Amino acid sequence: MAATWSGHTLIAVLSVVCFLSNNLTSAVQFPWAESPLNATESTVSVFDLRVPDFSTEQVQLFLNQTVAGRDYPDFHTIPVTNFTCRQVEQPGYYADPDTGCQVYRRCAPDGTMFSYLCGEQTVFDQLLLTCDFFYKVNCNISVAYYNYVNMHMYKSGQSVG
């Protein structure tokens, strides 16, 4: 059975663009590349930044066009990057854009950094603080949302749970 495509989805999935992130050059259009998903203005709600769900057929067509290491990061070990906990305002979890967000860091209250690697075809979603499929996360906006969830963590005087 043929997949049903909306004009916006078809354009978003099939258009050709260049996407640069840690030397990754993509030949496919990511679903979030169309505005407002690519917007970083403060007037855009974080809910607008989430990528809509796609059908199985749409995802399969998109994945058939992607190549590991070109369209999404393909690390098998955690690389050394320029990220340090000194560059962030508070303890929390942070996507490392130097890795296309496949690596994320936890900055402890004492400044100690812990590093984690998202699994194959996944990258760290700064809005949800979890790894998600690369086509559902816009790594380019991660730094702008470093404090969105992290500001609610590690507050003194508050109990957990």
Automatic annotation (TrEMBL):
It comes from the Eukaryota. One of its GO terms (molecular function) is chitin binding. PROSITE patterns: CHIT_BIND_II. Residues 82-141 form the Chitin-binding type-2 domain. InterPro entries: Chitin-bd_dom, Chitin-bd_dom_sf, Scoloptoxin-like. The keyword Flavoprotein does not apply. Residues 1-27 form the signal peptide. GO terms for cellular component: extracellular region. SMART domains: ChtBD2. This is Chitin-binding type-2 domain-containing protein. The lineage of its organism: Eukaryota, Metazoa, Ecdysozoa, Tardigrada, Eutardigrada.
